[in-house]
Amino acid sequence: MVVIPTFSELALSAELLRGVEDLQYPSPTAIQRLSIPPALAGHDLLASAPTGSGKSAAFGLPVLEALLKTRDRKTGALILAPTRELAQQITEHLRHLAKYTKIRVEPVYGGVGMGRQIQAFRRKSEVIVATPGRLIDLMRQGEARLNDVGILVLDEADRMLDMGFLPAVRRIIASLPNRRQTLFFSATLGTTVTALAGELLRSPVRVNLAPAAVPVETVTQAVYAVEQHKKTDLLVDLLKDNNIFSALVFTRTKSRAERLAAMLSRHNIGAERIHGDRSQAQRARALQAFKKGDYRVLVATDVAARGIDILDLGHVINYDVPHEPADYIHRIGRTARAQRRGDAITFVSRDETDLFANIERSIGKRLERVEHPLSDASMATTLEKAPQIRRRSFRRRRR
């Protein structure tokens, strides 16, 4: 039997332990248990773990502990994140953890005015959580001073590189002191990510809790074979089921997200949308309203996928099949967070069968097909033949 230590056994300051207690964390998750000790010891870290496994605290607690020991009023830690939502989420999380300290955690991201962000640097806020684009803008203006940064964290590094931030990340890193601790966190470790880690890290401790692109075990996955023009009708019909109280629905494009949210509203289903063309204030309001239960459905694109943190989200619905298996994992990782249970539903049209076959090959299993009156029998047959993997039988689990 593996004994999981309490946070008090991880050599954290009393102030941080009080913050952890307020958040009611029962015990460290696997990524926290394995990452925090070497990070506290000052080692560089290369860590991968599934989305929703507790990475924010895994790097946040060592960062805050190091800053508590220095007691210097300077910007000592920089955390880079790919999206505004994720930067905001990390900021809120670290502020909760640092509640009983005097450490200031400030976000820096686009879509909002620069005034407060400039002041964050001028006041030498101890922790800056930034997206690469906005940080580069402030660097060009001479407002982002990074010469005192002793700890660099790259969170969701794979998504950052997928979004084309590699040149910006390299430029930011070039402006940092050479002598620093670097903590590198990613949901997956592809070739580009591993190569960048090799450039940045010095004799890192490796923590790999996501050796393959597979969903967390507490997610029940189901598939509906449906023609493109029937997807909205199918979604509306499924939402009539009282078993789906709220759902995060993913579309491939911003325009489809807009149209789908409008169509759901016409069917008297409360829906909001979140994507790259909406302002930060609009996205924040939509997410907050969804969390409060003002809307049953939040329609999102992949750009926002990793910044959405909803602890009790029961359902993720892939209205469109993502192009990459990794995106599928990240999407459905929005549910079943913190070891809870959740359901993931995917609509697969005829033109998406090859994409979906790729996903099944990647995760190494055949997902359950669910029949529905709106399903197309001939299309279902096509979908059955697509995956080139060993067949297994699955039985639907009821929540």
Report on this structure.
This protein has two domains: 7-208, P-loop containing nucleotide triphosphate hydrolases (Rossmann fold, 3-Layer(aba) Sandwich), CATH 3.40.50; 219-385, P-loop containing nucleotide triphosphate hydrolases (Rossmann fold, 3-Layer(aba) Sandwich). Strands 3-4-2-5-6-1-7 form a seven-stranded parallel beta sheet, with helices on both faces. A seven-stranded parallel beta sheet has the order 10-11-9-12-13-8-14, with helices on both faces. The protein is of the alpha/beta class and 399 residues long. The chain has 15 helices and 14 strands. Helix 2 (30-40) packs parallel to helix 3 (55-70), helix 3 (55-70) crosses helix 4 and helix 6 (132-140) crosses helix 8 (166-174). 46% of the residues are buried. Helix 5 (115-122) links the parallel strand 3 and strand 4 (127-130). It has helices spanning 14-22, 30-40, 55-70, 84-97, 115-122, 132-140, 157-162, 166-174, 191-200, 231-239, 254-266, 280-292, 325-332, 353-363, 377-385, and strands spanning 45-48, 77-80, 105-108, 127-130, 151-154, 181-186, 205-208, 219-225, 247-250, 271-274, 297-300, 315-318, 342-348, 368-369. The protein is globular and about 65 Å long. 39% of the residues lie in helices and 16% in strands.
